[in-house]
Amino acid sequence: MAAKIDEKNKKVLRHPATVRLIHWTITVSTFLLIFTGFGQMPVYKRYMVDQVPGLAWSSDFSVTLIIHYLAAIALVFAAVFHVVYHGLRRDFHILPRRGDLRESYLIIKALLTKCKEPPCHKYLAEQRIAYLFIASSLALIIVTGIFKVIKNFPGVHFSEGLLYWMTMLHNLGTFLVIFGVVAHLAAFVFRENRALLPGMFTGKVDLDYIKHRHCLWYEELCREKILELKEGSDEGKVA
Ligand code: HEM
Ligand code: HEM
Question: Which partner from 4, 59, 77, 179 sits 20 to 30 angstroms from 66, CA to CA?
Answer without folding.
Answer: 179
